[in-house]
């Protein structure tokens, strides 16, 4: 099944646009896990089990695993999601971008080694660096467009040939770059005006929207700005605000409660 079909099916079946970000930071783990050798895997598995019915996707961030030498745990977490929650797509947040011959290896890493359904990519080096991922016809890729951080202004807001760079990226991803039909865009919840603009340029593309929760993005504003005509089309990510809702013994229940509240706030905003 293609990534976009899987996402569409999940949006409809579970009635949720929430994505939980798996950004495991041992310094913030519950005390009960701190001394365990497989703490990263156990933490992610606990969060996955506590929230899977509430999400349209999980988004593991590769740096949190790689910085701890925990690539095997990342493989295992993604394998666990596929085995126990096969309807939930996994977006590997790797933000890759390199020349084609190297990109082929990054694509293999994401889709064959880690078995992700989708990956995040930087468009900075141009279309030939995106192409190797599109060769995996069923797999998705979210292209960075208008990122949630302040420094995103430095380049993404520059005007070139009458349009902002983020607008050009949105237009390319919606048209000539989208040869597989599996592209989406990353747009921060922290910039609802630009989010609305991206939605005008790309009326149907899936949008991965980080920046609610710990980064303070407004749920209501971002949902109203980013939904498609049929009130969907968004993968709204929250990481820290959900996965670190408690560091006590109730960490799984607290993560679930935070995820329920976030999913419900998103759904209230789109109805
Ligand atoms: O591509 C991303 O996921 C991403 C893009 C962006 O513009 N801003 C952004 O915060 N992210 C990622 O989204 C997650 C946000 O996590 P929280 O701020 O904890 O909800 C992190 O994994 C970031 O790396």
Automatic annotation (TrEMBL):
Annotated Gene3D superfamilies: Aldolase class I (3.20.20.70)
Q: Keyword Lyase, does the record have it?
A: yes
Check the record and name the SMART domains matching this protein: OMPdecase
Pathway listed for it is: Pyrimidine metabolism; UMP biosynthesis via de novo pathway; UMP from orotate: step 2/2
**InterPro entries in the record:** Aldolase_TIM (IPR013785), OMPdecase_AS (IPR018089), OMPdecase_type-2 (IPR011995), OMPdeCOase_dom (IPR001754), RibuloseP-bd_barrel (IPR011060)
What are the GO BP annotations of this UniProt entry? 'de novo' pyrimidine nucleobase biosynthetic process; 'de novo' UMP biosynthetic process
Tell me which residues make up the Orotidine 5'-phosphate decarboxylase domain.
17-254
Q: Does the keyword Lyase apply?
A: yes
Task: Write down the SUPFAM superfamilies for this protein, in alphabetical order.
Answer: Ribulose-phoshate binding barrel (SSF51366)
What the entry lists under Pfam families is as follows: OMPdecase
Q: Which GO terms describe its molecular function?
A: orotidine-5'-phosphate decarboxylase activity
Q: What is its EC number?
A: 4.1.1.23
Q: What catalytic reaction does the record list?
A: orotidine 5'-phosphate + H(+) = UMP + CO2
Swiss-Prot/TrEMBL keywords: Decarboxylase, Lyase, Pyrimidine biosynthesis
Family designation: Belongs to the OMP decarboxylase family. Type 2 subfamily.
The record's listing under NCBIfam families reads: pyrF_sub2 (TIGR02127)
Its protein name is: Orotidine 5'-phosphate decarboxylase
Q: Which organism is it from?
A: Sutterella megalosphaeroides
Q: What is the lineage of its organism?
A: Bacteria, Pseudomonadati, Pseudomonadota, Betaproteobacteria, Burkholderiales
């Amino acid at each position: 099944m293609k990534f976009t079909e899987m996402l569409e099916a999940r949006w409809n079946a579970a009635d949720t646009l929430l994505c939980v970000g798996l950004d495991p930071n041992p310094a913030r783990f519950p005390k009960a896990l701190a001394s365990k050798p497989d703490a990263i895997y156990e933490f992610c598995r606990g969060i996955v089990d506590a929230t899977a019915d509430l999400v349209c996707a999980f988004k593991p961030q590769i740096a949190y695993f790689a910085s701890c030498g925990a690539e095997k745990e990342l493989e295992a977490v993604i394998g666990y999601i596929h085995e126990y929650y096969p309807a939930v797509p996994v977006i590997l947040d790797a933000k890759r971008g390199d020349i084609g011959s190297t990109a082929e290896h990054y694509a293999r890493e994401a889709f064959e080694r880690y078995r992700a359904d989708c990956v995040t990519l930087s468009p900075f080096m141009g279309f030939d660096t995106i192409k190797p991922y599109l060769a995996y016809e069923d797999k998705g890729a979210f292209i960075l467009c208008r990122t949630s951080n302040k420094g995103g202004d430095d380049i993404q807001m520059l005007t070139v040939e009458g349009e902002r760079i983020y607008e050009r990226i949105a237009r390319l991803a919606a048209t000539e770059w989208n040869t597989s039909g599996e592209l989406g865009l990353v747009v921060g919840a922290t910039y609802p005006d630009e989010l609305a603009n991206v939605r005008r340029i790309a009326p149907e593309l899936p949008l991965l929207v980080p920046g609610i929760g710990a980064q303070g993005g407004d749920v209501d504003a971002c949902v109203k700005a980013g939904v498609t005509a049929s009130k969907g089309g968004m993968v709204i990510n929250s990481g820290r605000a959900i996965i670190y809702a408690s560091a006590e013994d109730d960490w799984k229940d607290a993560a679930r409660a935070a995820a329920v509240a976030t999913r419900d706030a998103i759904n209230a905003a789109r109805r």
